[in-house]
Model the fold of this input.
Amino acid sequence: MNIKKHIPNLITLINLFCGCVAIVFISKANYEMAFYMVCLGIFFDFFDGFFARLFKVSSPLGLQLDSLADMVTSGVAPGYVMYTLFLKSAHPHDVIASSFIPFIGFIVTLGSCYRLANFNIDTRQTDSFIGLPTPANSLFIMSLPLVIQFSDSLMIFEMLTNHWVLLGITLCSAYILNAEIPLFSLKVKKFNIKDNALQIVFLVISLILALLLHFTAVPLIIIFYVLLSIVNNIFLKK
Done:
């Protein structure tokens, strides 16, 4: 029995387990632990592909397992977070708003599902991405309740507890996941500064933001990633 061929799939299943645990924490309003579990799941999501390539055991089964695990960790979990944010933004006496509107948050899950299915058949996304990867989108959404919790800014609190702002974030999230926008990959192919300048700039600025702003830095880093990719695309076309 070749044990090596099962290692990547086992790592993928650990990613799925982390997503399931994150959902349990969300149901208990423990958003910080939910965020950490999603981060852990994304960590394992990165390494399942790494070990599959290292051991040369990539398979169609592994590809499908990877998408199914991501669907939970980077699809259901962030959709559930958006649902809870909508729920908290609704006036307690507004029965319609509190009963139906929160389900709009699961548009994030639908957008993630479509992206994951499309990714499996899109041959253009081997070296870069078309649209925002689901793990990045998940980190963005998962960080929002933590920004509310730990930020001292009244303006940020009012924005992220406003159902119109949440609706905008939800629709933008589903759109950017599937938009025909090329986004650079963090994979290192050649070990030199010239070929990795874009990645180095992104990582350095992201680290500075993380040190200064903590959880508030997470959505800013994702937005910066998208904007930097767009600027890079403009310069590549010239």
In short: The chain has a mean pLDDT of 88.
